[in-house]
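Bumping my old thread because nobody answered last time. Still need a sequence for this structure:
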């Protein structure tokens, strides 16, 4: 490998093979590059001693993992195939696939999705006579998840301390865990906790895993949570070869339990190591970097970083005010079209936003203009009823203990197995102390079922068993086609749809599943099995990614959260308004405001060459047009690196005084450009472009 493609501190990080190593550096400084090069160096340096299978690289998303793996194979050839590159959760799932039976789960465990989790919570709440209409099960689930991510179970609170939800969470938690286990399932958080338990409680497994994974590398270390850190510490217990890279300014997942302390305290967590700082930014032009630095500089309590770039100059960052959100979308689409005409490829372009809801107007205008796009994180697809039904079939076929999925599809499409039948069977199961599936297998033995129901249940059992056997031989998509045909899924869907177009839309969902199965089979080859597909699916949707079949050169639409680690030549960061960026309801709390600022920094630093920060003067909220205040972060931008653009479409209502002052201020500052020859307050080439 050519070490000359690295700068001196990067090289130092790459050639340091033993002991803990922290690379703490700002955005675009080549941290992720250090990880890939270090892996290749490990493979090259001690052939025969360090094998690909000894290396584990942890990324933040599955997408990042796939990309890193591809790079590795590109750089080091096929032997890099053996390096395990995945997220913490995928790694946990991998460990559990091998050894979860040691904790009493079935080997083919399932990963519960949000729907399964909520169903279990509600069931537990009902058992405690807690009304699930007065108390929000989602909130309870959140509290449970938070506790698990911080590495501990919800603890009993002393009398009188904590609110109702704390109390409910405490009551429901043990039942929730038990029912998951009884269903042979784990939740997303268990993918971190159970592997740690395996390592802690089973010395032979500790031996096995620490011997195998002797070189650990973690990207985006600033966003690890306590449960992940715990797992990492256990894995590194013997070798101590942990290389972590990250940027405290990019910690944006504290709402999901990320602990920025983990990176700040690295030398205490992994003593005796080395720390490397990187200062050159290779990604962005000067103007973008200046904007980013100015925004993040306002955060107190950060490890100060000096960042510079030799990509001096660059076009100014465009700060664009649009009359409303529809106009904002039109402006963005128009500028995209313009840049594509100038030769920028669609996959070099991203539109970033704070909340998922902001993508809709953008999607509509892009569709109008026939510009291909991909929404990262639109989990809508898997929320569709038909898709959920098909997936529930898979889950039951893989795991007959999964009663939630079983109850979902036992009568879908309708096959004359009603609620009464299932309730009676459930009573029998409880009475006999066996699973629902066990009594279903002998349903004709029970005389209290409606006439003929027993036989119909047995037919269903037979169907599931037959397909369980059929799936053993791969051919996932084909077997699924047969299954759907046998149960008349398409006809039933069509019959229940309100119109032909509604039916088409629903059936598209079914085709989407078949597509995704085919892609999965192509990717995995002979390793493709239904259980791994299900695991991958739950990991992927949780990581907020979705595969959209179709063309491969598309504009990317995603939340700023999802954009971490990525880079694009042209970036639109939309909705630069109070209440969105920083996000509403968070302004009061200083800590959240700091995180919002970091988020803003992450968004800005995705741009390599051209950055647009857009905002709408008004937005429609609940049918009413409300005026919007510009984001406070815009005020922090150095006037000499921005260009203010105001679109002059007819606006609804006069600007607020606040707005006027803000832009007077911005323009005032802009009157003294650092780069001579720029028109003050100029609308530039893009002014009024949306019309
Ligand atoms: P982030 O904090 O956003 O994750 P990062 O620190 O991981 O950023 P990278 O994505 O690794 O940064 O690198 C940013 C860009 O700079 C990439 O395009 C990378 O190829 C390039 N780059 C990094 N180091 C060098 C180098 N020494 N020479 C040339 N290009 C480099
Ligand atoms: Mg990176």
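Sorry it took so long. Here it is:
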């Amino acid at each position: 490998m050519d070490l000359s493609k690295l700068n001196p501190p990067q090289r130092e990080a790459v050639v340091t093979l033993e002991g803990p190593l922290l690379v703490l550096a700002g955005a675009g400084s080549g941290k992720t590059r250090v990880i890939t090069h270090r892996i290749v160096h490990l493979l090259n340096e001690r052939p025969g001693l360090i094998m690909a299978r000894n290396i584990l690289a942890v990324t933040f998303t599955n997408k990042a993992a796939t990309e890193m793996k591809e790079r590795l194979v590109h750089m080091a050839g096929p032997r890099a195939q053996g390096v395990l590159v995945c997220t913490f959760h995928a790694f946990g799932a991998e460990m559990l696939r091998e050894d979860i039976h040691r904790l009493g789960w079935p080997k083919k465990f399932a990963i519960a999705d949000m729907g399964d989790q909520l169903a279990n919570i509600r069931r537990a709440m009902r058992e405690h006579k807690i009304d699930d209409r007065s108390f929000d099960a989602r909130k309870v689930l959140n509290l449970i998840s938070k506790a698990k991510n911080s590495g501990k179970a919800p603890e009993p609170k002393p009398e009188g301390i904590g609110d109702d939800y704390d109390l409910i969470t405490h009551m429901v938690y043990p039942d929730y865990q038990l029912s998951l286990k009884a269903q042979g399932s784990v939740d997303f958080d268990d993918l971190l906790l159970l592997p740690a338990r395996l390592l802690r409680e089973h010395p032979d497994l500790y031996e096995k895993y620490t011997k195998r994974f002797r070189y650990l590398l973690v990207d985006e270390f600033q966003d690890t949570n306590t449960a992940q850190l715990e797992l990492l510490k256990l894995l590194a217990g013997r070798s101590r070869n942990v290389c972590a890279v990250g940027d405290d300014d990019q910690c944006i997942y504290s709402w999901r339990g990320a602990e920025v302390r983990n990176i700040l305290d690295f030398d205490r967590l992994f003593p005796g190591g080395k720390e490397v700082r990187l200062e050159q930014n290779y990604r962005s032009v000067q103007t973008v970097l200046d904007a980013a630095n100015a925004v993040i500089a306002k955060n107190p309590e950060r490890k100060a970083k000096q960042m510079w770039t030799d990509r001096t100059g660059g076009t100014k960052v465009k700060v664009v005010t649009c009359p409303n959100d529809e106009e904002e979308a039109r402006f963005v689409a128009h500028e995209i079209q313009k840049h594509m005409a100038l030769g920028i490829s669609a996959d070099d372009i991203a539109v970033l936003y704070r909340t998922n809801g902001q993508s809709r107007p953008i999607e509509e205008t892009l569709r109008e203009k026939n510009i291909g796009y991909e929404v990262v994180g639109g989990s809508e697809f898997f929320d569709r009823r038909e898709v959920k039904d098909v997936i529930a079939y898979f889950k039951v076929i893989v795991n007959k203990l999964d009663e939630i999925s079983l109850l979902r599809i036992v009568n879908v499409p309708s096959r004359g197995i009603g609620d009464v039948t299932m309730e009676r069977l459930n009573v029998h199961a409880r009475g006999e102390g066996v699973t629902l599936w066990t009594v279903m297998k002998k349903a004709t033995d029970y005389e209290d079922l409606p006439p003929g129901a027993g036989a119909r249940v047995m037919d269903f059992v037979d169907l599931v068993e037959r397909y369980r056997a059929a799936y053993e031989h791969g051919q996932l998509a084909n077997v699924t086609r047969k299954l759907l045909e046998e149960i008349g899924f398409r006809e039933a869907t069509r019959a229940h749809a309100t119109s032909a177009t509604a039916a088409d839309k629903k059936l598209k969902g079914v085709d989407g599943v078949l597509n995704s199965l085919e892609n999965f089979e192509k990717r995995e080859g002979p390793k493709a099995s239904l259980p791994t597909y299900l695991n991958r699916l739950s990991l992927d949707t949780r990581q907020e990614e979705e595969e959209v079949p179709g063309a491969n050169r598309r504009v990317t639409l995603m939340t700023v959260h999802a954009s971490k680690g990525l880079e694009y030549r042209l970036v639109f960061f939309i909705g630069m308004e109070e209440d969105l960026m920083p996000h509403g309801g968070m302004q009061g709390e200083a800590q959240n405001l700091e995180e919002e600022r970091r988020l803003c920094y992450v968004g800005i630093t995705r741009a390599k060459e051209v950055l647009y920060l857009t905002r709408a003067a008004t937005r429609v909220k609940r049918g009413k047009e409300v005026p919007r205040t510009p984001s406070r972060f815009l005020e922090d931008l150095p006037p000499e690196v921005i260009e203010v653009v105001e679109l002059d479409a007819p606006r609804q209502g006069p600007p607020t005084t606040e707005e006027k002052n803000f832009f007077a201020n911005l323009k005032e500052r802009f009157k003294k450009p650092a780069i001579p020859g720029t028109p003050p307050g100029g609308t530039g080439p893009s002014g009024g472009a949306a019309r």
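Residues 542-551, 669-691 have pLDDT under 50 and may be disordered. Let me know if any region looks off to you.
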